[in-house]
Design the sequence.
């Protein structure tokens, strides 16, 4: 009988790249993985509730650690696979010039009423990195009251793309994806912990196709595809 | 005894007491407006529960608070022509007429739709909805609906009040016919002294 | 943009219709029962039941989804009970999507039905009883038809709400193509894609057409009943 | 868990009440007008209007939020118009949250009101006219009070829906503490945090209490009207 | 001329034509059930628009299809006692009675609440809701409501059908008093030949 396709739970921000990798996998004659894209928090809770998943590809390490602490991951299956940059963006038509460095005049660039669009810095990965970077550059206090916190990084991107916010902070991969915004500056790697997208297999996973697909994701061929979409790989 | 009543009920803060026995074919309830005539019919029909007392019709006990008897309305089989008619607004006249008829075992029906339509003169109305009927038309449909259910007693609350003299006389003849042929106990509420006299009803005063 | 639906899109539309249809069909009797209790019974604490029914409206949908996940997940008591008694699995299945939609639609349906149940002229029920109809037949032939506009409105509202249900569904049963990826979830996925605007617009257009279709169908039902044919 | 509310929580609760209250107050007249048109007028294409009103139910909330962003965002025509004519800014303001809530609540309110408008006995309106009341007074003294249960139910549904509104709000006006962070947005943030369960439970408990309060208030209104005092 | 009518209207597929002029104080419409009596009153009151024709009362044209005249019902000022009563179910009896009264300029009222309550005998009912009234009680409230609006004509559709003889006689006296003191044109629909005769009404047959 044909092998049963694996079920993969993946962060919504991986949608385009992971679909590309899955295509390559299918071309090798494997059954097409079933991939559910949603917020990492929702996916992690589903795994905790016993959902029948074979792989979990998270947008950040926190939720992965949450599962690991509860012994819900197969020991040794966790890998921090992808890296990313965080960037300052503006609408494509904007001519703002800024360089993300110590004490750079971010609040001034926003103007009196402008808001800085970013994913929720308390809970959403892209926002958490943004806060860390702004804090270490010493500009967090200036913009603290001038933020528009979005539900996820794509919604933050939309605020900038629609001109509702003059500036925003998103992952480099998101900025690449939209022609309506341009990258103003990339945050220095030293200003925040490395952005990483970890991959692991839930402890209950039994489908051998899941493990096979996991190994493919770690292969050079898959990494090359991820890099095409702007990710860094380790 | 066709009707034996000894009941009391509280309505709008007033105590209504009805206490009578009647042996005539037709018993007319008379009394001023608001005296409690409709209230009595509602209690006989089982739609209003007396606070206490006893109701028997044709020897059968329908309600007895002491004995804990309270027959459901659908088991009392009374053909009730309501003062406010209560036609089913969502059903055509034909379906209103046949509502009770369809629920009655064929052996217990004593009237056909054709006969009822004939003496009520409602042939052209069968496919109409009740909302489009005139006052007297609706009243005739309500009479037909009650009779077609093959009831074992009749409760008539001003059944002819909206009808012209010719119709009224015709329907009085029908009621006389029912009285004579089927020997149904009939409670008749009417302010029309002529009709009461003509039916040979024994009069029971209410609310005095 | 106006091209005919692709096979994938048809799959999503049919799944959405299936999930919403099952959700409404399952919820309607429950909603009617609850509406009946709220409209006809008097008991202390009624307002608490009323508030509980409104909860899925008041809570953010993701919380409702999370609570469903806790109750019906692999380790949840309700999930195990469903599995053992009916052999129905809801986790990651379209049945779970229908369950989420049903819970979200319930308050809308209860309110609409209750509104009309409270408007039914009880004297007509007395007339039916007196004509020989027992309580059940009275209910079926008088009460229910007179409350029919409320039931129909409840079904329409519930169906529309189910078609649009997103937050509880994705939190509860995830976003699995072909199984739980209904139209709103597909739209969400498209929103995450760079340049997905055209696809979003197209999928939203399909949703609009679905709702138009549902409304036209319900209007036809209403007209039929207004003409004196019974809806029930 | 049962500790009294902190100052921050009070702020969130008050903001939620303000947003929902304004949303319902603003929408009620519009909902009544639309319900009136749908209940009383006959014209071709009516079902299209009906379908448009149902759209916020059928579309996933984030799409509604996205459409609002297109219309009212920095470059949006509606936003510029509002700004120029009334000096009202909605982007990233609580007014925008109220606008999103209003749009989401509208279909529920229209349906409830329409149901009872259709049930009003028009002969009573004729009686009022004949007694000397013009169309407006007839409306205010007969039609509106008779439809009051529908208006009340619509307001309750709309208020509850507003209290729970999440997807359209966060997509449209983001999650700004003290400005647009209503209770559902706060709950959502907490839900995103590993280990945020206790906070979620606490905030959800507050939402439950709010809805209970709103229902008790509406029940009191109903009782008052049932006693013969007028609601309107 | 108190009433001049020449109208036609389609109802349930039948053409109803009413054509009469009357000069008496009281004009009685008589005809079999379903003849169109209520339809005529509705057209005079402005609640039903004739397909064509002309209606004038006391010399004032209320409707004229040729001249494009169609007075709104609230400007016709007719005291209409409906056959189906149409009490406002959401208002107490007192507020039903005062509904039209409050809308009438004080100078045009010709009856006080106290007087109406007195001759209708509805004092104890003032705080009640209409749903709890008996048939005759509701009818008396409907009469009071119509008269208290200070109308300039009366349209009475079987206004005494649910009343006992004593009440009926009392109210006939009231109508006679209104006829004599205020000279209001009155259209009176009744199957009660005695009442019509006693009021000295000129009889107009409808639907023949
Ligand atoms: N549903 C009700 N709730 C409370 N009181 C009521 C109700 N129905 C009637 N009553 C009151 O009970 C009394 C008796 O009413 P009932 O209808 O039996 O009078 P009736 O003799 O039939 O009068 P009528 O000849 O006017 O119809 C009246 O005072 C009436 O106001
Ligand atoms: N709303 C309506 N729609 C259609 N037809 C109607 C409507 N109301 C009455 N009719 C019909 O019009 C005709 C005249 O009705 P109308 O009510 O004027 O009769 P009426 O003379 O007052 O009779 P009654 O003495 O029985 O009250 C009847 O055939 C009736 O069925
Ligand atoms: Mg009575
Ligand atoms: Mg009539």
Sequence:
């Amino acid at each position: 009988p044909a092998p049963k396709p694996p079920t993969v739970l993946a962060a919504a921000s991986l949608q385009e790249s992971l679909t590309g990798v899955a295509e390559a996998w299918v071309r090798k004659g494997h059954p097409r993985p079933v991939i559910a894209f949603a917020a990492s928090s929702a996916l992690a809770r589903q795994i905790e509730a016993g959902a029948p998943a074979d792989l979990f590809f998270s947008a950040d390490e926190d939720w992965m650690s949450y599962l690991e602490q509860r012994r819900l991951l197969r020991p040794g299956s966790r890998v921090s696979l992808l890296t990313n940059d965080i960037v300052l963006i503006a609408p494509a038509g904007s001519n703002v010039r800024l360089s993300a460095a110590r004490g750079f005049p971010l609040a001034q660039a926003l103007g009196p009423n402008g808001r800085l669009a970013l994913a929720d810095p308390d809970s959403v990965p892209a926002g958490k990195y943004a806060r860390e970077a702004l804090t270490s550059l010493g500009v967090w206090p200036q913009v603290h009251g001038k933020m528009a916190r979005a539900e996820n990084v794509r919604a933050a991107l939309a605020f900038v793309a629609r001109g509702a916010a003059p500036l925003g902070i998103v992952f480099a991969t998101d900025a690449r994806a939209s022609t309506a915004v341009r990258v103003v500056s990339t945050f220095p790697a030293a200003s925040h912990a490395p952005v990483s997208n970890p991959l692991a297999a839930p402890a209950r996973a039994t489908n051998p196709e899941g493990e096979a697909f996991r190994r493919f994701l770690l292969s050079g061929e898959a990494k090359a595809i991820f890099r095409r979409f702007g990710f860094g790989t380790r | 005894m066709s009707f034996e009543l000894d009941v009391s009920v509280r309505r709008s803060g007033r105590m209504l007491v009805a206490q009578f026995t009647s042996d005539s074919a037709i018993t007319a309830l008379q009394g001023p407006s608001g005296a409690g005539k409709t209230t009595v019919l509602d209690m006989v029909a089982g739609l209003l529960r007396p606070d206490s007392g006893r109701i028997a019709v044709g020897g059968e006990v329908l309600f007895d608070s002491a004995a804990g008897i309270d027959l459901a309305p659908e088991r009392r089989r009374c053909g009730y022509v309501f003062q406010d008619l209560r036609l089913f607004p969502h059903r055509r006249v034909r379906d209103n007429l046949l509502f009770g008829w369809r629920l009655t075992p064929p052996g217990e029906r004593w009237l056909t739709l054709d006969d009822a339509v004939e003496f009520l003169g409602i042939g052209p109305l069968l496919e109409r909805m009740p909302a489009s009927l005139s006052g007297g038309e609706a009243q005739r449909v309500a009479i037909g609906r009650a009779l077609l259910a093959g009831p074992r007693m009749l409760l008539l609350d001003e059944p002819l009040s909206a009808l012209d003299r010719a119709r009224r006389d015709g329907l009085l003849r029908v009621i006389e016919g029912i009285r004579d042929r089927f020997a149904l106990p009939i409670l008749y509420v009417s302010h029309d002294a002529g009709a009461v006299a003509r039916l040979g009803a024994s009069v029971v005063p209410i609310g005095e | 943009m106006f091209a005919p639906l692709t096979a994938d899109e048809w799959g999503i539309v049919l799944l959405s219709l299936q999930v919403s249809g099952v959700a409404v069909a399952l919820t309607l009797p429950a909603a009617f029962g609850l509406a009946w209790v709220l409209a006809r019974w008097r008991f202390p604490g009624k307002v608490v039941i009323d508030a509980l029914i409104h909860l899925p409206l008041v809570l953010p949908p993701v919380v409702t989804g999370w609570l469903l996940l806790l109750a019906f997940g692999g380790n949840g008591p309700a999930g195990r009970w469903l599995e053992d008694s009916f052999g129905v699995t809801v986790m990651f299945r379209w049945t779970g999507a229908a369950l989420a939609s049903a819970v979200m639609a319930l308050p809308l349906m209860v309110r609409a039905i209750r509104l009309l149940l409270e408007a039914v002229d009880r004297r007509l029920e007395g007339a039916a009883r007196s004509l020989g109809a027992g309580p059940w037949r009275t209910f079926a032939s008088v009460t229910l038809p007179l409350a029919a506009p409320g039931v129909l409105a409840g079904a329409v509202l519930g169906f529309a709400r189910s078609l649009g249900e997103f937050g509880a569904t994705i939190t509860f049963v995830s976003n699995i193509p072909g199984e739980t990826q209904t139209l709103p979830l597909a739209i969400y996925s498209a929103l995450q894609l760079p340049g997905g605007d055209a696809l979003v617009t197209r999928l939203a257009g399909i949703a609009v057409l679905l709702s138009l279709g549902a409304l036209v169908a319900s209007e036809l039902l209403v007209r039929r009943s207004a003409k004196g044919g019974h809806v029930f």
Q: What stands out?
A: Chains A and E do not touch (no CB pair under 8 Å).
